[in-house]
Amino acid sequence: MQSFSYVAARTLAEATAILAREGDQAKCLSGGTDLIVFLREGRRRASVVVDVKGIPELNQLSYHPQAGLTIGAAVPCHRIYSDPEVTAHYPGLIDAVALIGGIAIQGRATLGGNVCTASPAGDAIPALIAHQAVCVVASPEGTRELPIEQFFRGPGQTVLGTGELLVALKLPPPRPRMGAAYLRFTPRNEMDIAVASAGVAVALSEDKARFAHARVALGAVAPTPLFVPQAGEALINQPVSEAAVEAAARAAQAAARPITDVRGTAEQRRHLAYVLTKRALWRAIERARTDGKERENGKLERGG
Amino acid sequence: MHQKVCVTAIINDEEVTFLCEPRQSLLEVLRDVLGLTGAKEGCNNGNCGACAVLLNGVLVNACLVLGVEVNGARVTTVEGIAPKEGLHPLQRKFLEHAALQCGVCTPGFIVAAKALLDRNPNPTEHEVRHWLAGNLCRCTGYDKIVRAVLDAAAEMRAQRQPT
Amino acid sequence: MATVEVIAKDNTGTTNGKSYSVIGRRVLRPDGVDKVTGRAQYGADVKLPGLLYGKVLRSPHAHARIRAIDTSAAEQLPGVKAIITGKDLPLAEDKVAKSGEGSVNYSYLRQNVLAQDKVLYHGHPVAAVAAVDIHTAEEALALIKVEYEPLPPVLDVLEAMRDDAPILLPGLRTRELGEVVGDKPTNIASHEQFARGDVAAGFAQAAVIVEREFRTNTVHQGYIEPHNATALWNADDHITVWTSTQGAWDQRRDLSALLQVPISRVRVIPMEIGGGFGGKFALYLEPLAALLSRKAGHRPVKMWMQRDEELKATGPTSASVIRVKAGARADGVITAVQVWMAYEAGAFPGSPVSAGMGVIFAPYRLENLLIDGYDVLVNKPPAQPYRAPGGTNAAFAGESVIDELAERLGMDPIAFRRINAAKEGDRRADGPVYGRIGYIETLDAIAAHPHYNAPLPAPSAPYIKVGRGVASGFWFNWDGKSSASATVNPDGTVAYLEGSVDIGGTRASLAMMLAETLGIPYEDVKPMVGDTQTLGFNDGTGGSRTTYGSGIVAYHLGQAIIQELKKRAAALWQVSAEAIQVEGDRYICGDRQIAFKELAEKLDETGGPLSVSVSLDTKGAIPGFGTHVVDVAVDTETGKVTILRYTAAQDVGRAIHPSYVEGQIQGGVAQGIGWALSEEYVYDDEGHLLNASLLDYRMPTALDLPMIEPVIVEVPNPNHPFGVKGVGEVPIVPPAAAIANAIYQAIGVRITTLPMKPAVILKALGRI
């Protein structure tokens, strides 16, 4: 592996100062499950690796019924799905963080890392879009916030500028009668990368007969994870029905702009965008109808 | 080459101080610097689980941790699983069930299975398979491994609550 | 909730009229504690004083001429101790040696371990570096400048057979039915043929004829331990190599030929081996580590591969195209089969096509057959044996067609196979006459099994379809040469040194056979694996031969000890050795008797130390057969196939250690499932391997498989003292076909390509 120096940053100011000074040659390390592989394979270069997981702001995991959820960028997956409140209120996110890599990966891999790697197939991202996550970004000049769907520029590329660091993701509190789900398709049941994926959230009307709110996002069907507003809009005020779900799934499929690569063909991905959106919507609807009660025992369901 | 860093960690319940370059992985440090060759290098990118260790009690792949990161941390490798006398029940059950053939994935499976049973003493077959999906075995088809883990769990439960 | 089953019962009893006390028990393996505590020493665990670390520079091109290599900048890097390129390898003779079940051509081997004027596949070694640490060695690789002239690659077997295809080896000429004819440059290394009867007449009698073309993709052995080697070329020109190999003696011979040093100066020490499946016979790193060691001033050099190097440049086994035509009468009797098969050899001749030709219809009695096979070069790594080499490809084609014939005739697939099943005395396609085979017994075992008679599981959703399939498989099995020695210790135990590397529990099974022969407890035999300096030649651990061939040697070793102990008892009692009878561990003369243990205590007073050694070229292997049944669920919306239930019956002759026999069956099935559903090499048009990682080369995980139920069938081999036939290879042969047949039952479409991955299923269903 290429040689680099290592700094375990203790404060945001310290980390952002190094990032500002070293620019492209500084790389942030939190869980390392992507970065160490990238450095070893020469896909990224670094003169300094800045370990950010000792920074308090990147380690917070807090939920308030009014403020919602804040997850520090360096919180590993296993801490997220071990938290009963997150499990109860953000099922789509839990679906995603519980299937990134395998258990040993989830012991280290972080939500911030998954977002900053900016893979079109990053599992957490469609779920975060569905949950309306906001990115909190720090730099020596201060902090800014932006919706997660605006964070990506292309495969492996984000809007982070020199000296900027993803600090946390903020998710609003769940709406009443809300359900969310993330489903991906992989040839293997674990240890795989999504051929295509769908993250969805729905909230039902008081009588649970209609959609009051819906968001749909897709993974691995475009250069970045793809927010598909028209798929969600197709559901608003519609009755909960096969026809409505079908229309939303077709809207998602129409928005997909996939390529053919080693993991799947464009036509397969376009088809899967439809199938996964449909299945994820029904799973989310089921969760909305039961107000998340099915999840209270903490059992994780598998997707795909 | 960047200067070597001095790292102090608790490895298998013993305080150890070593020097390593920032680019050396924990796996490299364990195997090459500390002589703990139980963790195996099967893929060096987190896809086979042969280098599984516990880092502060959490299951990780040692190839995806930098040696410098474990300063002040607790690391448990397969060499630290057995009690002073005899074997850990998982180790014994792997032998009784013939849950290994070539044996090179076995250290990773035993460490991973221990992490599972520490957290869930009564897993279902599905939970065992899910938990161990990050550990590849090419010899056994997993059948006897899964049985060994379930049997070890049953024995450990029985020992905890004598009837 | 899952129930925990007790450990399965022992399987003692009688074979060939003899009853056993050790054989058939599920004893603990003697190397077990070291392996579960992390103490066992595998090749990559070797550490020596002054150790250097070696790395290989590999070709970024699939096909290119090497114009120049400049190592000067790399040599200047501090910490670099030696660099070698193709010219550092002595010129090898164009000689072919028999190696394991195949053969090795030293000219090709030399070109493969370090490219000479051309690189022939993505990942072909071009240079190697030894340095003070692995990172420095890696940095040095980046400083080596290689000037390539890229050439067009050919990556598909049918393309490579065309007259206008790019030529890999300009000197290659086709061996047509064993003889070189013509002088045209070609990629077709050989054409072989098996013929019997009159296929045209046979097809004329057929009521149904099925004709199909099958394609299978390149797959890798996938052992978890990457190739590694540590070598010391000492100042006295003696070379010691510590390595992970299936065949230490083969490697010694090949290293001696390649490095041109006398065989007596090469010592190969096989370390514990982390899987092989046929992929750890060939030399890769060993000669490079040795040459680097010499060049670095006789310091030991350790090398091991990264996983991408494994996938790019070791293994794999052949992709293939197989065309089958088969006919049967209305009463189910097969009247003729005609097969055309072409296997990819990779960069040098040597695909397992002839084995595939032997496997494809081996389970059946055939009057009329015509099988043509082609060994074809493509710009991929040279094919290596992989568990029943060539068998899975062949059975996928053959057993799919058998299933279709049965279906077209409206017959149960097991009943159809039973009508045509080969028996003792029938002749194989490749010539030999079957001995006491147990194919029919495996059919009967499946036909009677609860799995085959259970209703199909109910689909879990409207878009899920379920199906059940069966298929059979065959493997030749091998006997070969083995060597062992033993010493009787004064405490009544036996130190047992044997030459077969223990890749999956054979220390236990061999020690069991020695203990059984001596009538002593298993625990009293202390087995150890020897190296090339300590024993006579031993064929490799492969070909399903170890428990057979090395087992025969264990038996004769025991007999030799018994003969010696008879003399010792005779000396004790002042009688002739002929007067001594042996029953179990008792040595008896009239009313006097003494146990093995007591006799061992008296060695000093009856003639001194007792050691024996045996080397044999064993004969008499009998082929193995298996029949599998599988239930699958097909998700018709995503194309994903899930294995719901799997049962595999196999005739193993006699199961010495039932747990490890079951383990071989389960492991072979798991590999077969991976080959069937998810494993494949994906190349781009320029011949770059795109999925050289265990993330994208998808071997099954624990979550992808169900429990795999083995059904041990025992039709003893009369040529083996304990009835052994060999077990390791048969179980990988049927799975792809069984799964294809189950998918057909589920969705009504026959899939004719491997892997049967989701995109293929979706396409077959017309969904994409």
Describe this structure in words.
The complex is a heterotrimer of chains A (304), B (163) and C (768). Chain A has 304 residues and is of the alpha+beta class. Chain A contains eleven helices and 14 strands. In chain A, a hairpin with a 6-residue loop joins strand 12 (196-204) and strand 13. Mean pLDDT of chain A is 95; it is low at 295-304. Chain B folds into two domains: 5-80, Beta-grasp domain (Ubiquitin-like (UB roll), Roll); 89-160, DNA polymerase, domain 1 (Orthogonal Bundle), CATH 1.10.150. The model of chain B has no long low-confidence stretch (mean pLDDT 97). The longest helix of chain B is centred in the last third of the chain and has 18 residues, at 143-160. Chain B contains five helices and five strands, in the order E-E-H-E-E-E-H-H-H-H. Chain B has a five-stranded mixed sheet with strand order 2-1-5-3-4, sandwiched between helices. Chain B is an alpha+beta fold. Chain C is α+β, with helices and mostly antiparallel strands and 768 residues long. Among the domains of chain C are: 390-477 and 622-764, Aldehyde Oxidoreductase, domain 4; 479-618, Aldehyde oxidase/xanthine dehydrogenase, molybdopterin binding domain (Aldehyde Oxidoreductase, domain 4), CATH 3.30.365. Helices cover 26% and strands 26% of the residues of chain C. Chain C contains 20 helices and 33 strands. In chain C, strand 24 (494-498), helix 15 (506-518) and strand 25 (525-529) form a beta-alpha-beta unit. In chain C, helix 18 crosses helix 19. The radius of gyration of chain C is 27 Å and the shape is globular. At the B-C interface, helix 2, helix 3, helix 4 and helix 5 of B face helix 1, helix 4 and helix 18 of C.
Largest sheet of chain B: 5 strands, mixed
User: Number of DSSP helices of chain B?
Assistant: 5
Q: What is the third-level CATH name, the topology of the largest domain in chain B?
A: Ubiquitin-like (UB roll)
The number of distinct helices of chain A, counting runs of at least 4 residues, comes to: 11
- Please identify which CATH superfamily of the largest domain in chain B we are dealing with: Beta-grasp domain
Distance between the termini of chain A: 35 Å
Which parts of chain B are unreliable, with pLDDT below 50 for 5 consecutive residues or more?
Answer: none
How many beta strands in the DSSP annotation of chain B?
5
In which range does the helix fraction of chain B lie? Answer: 25-40%
Cα Rg of chain A: 19 Å
Question: Which word captures the global form of chain B?
Answer: globular
Number of domains of chain A: 2
Report the mean per-residue pLDDT of chain B as an integer: 97
N to C succession of SSEs of chain B: EEHEEEHHHH
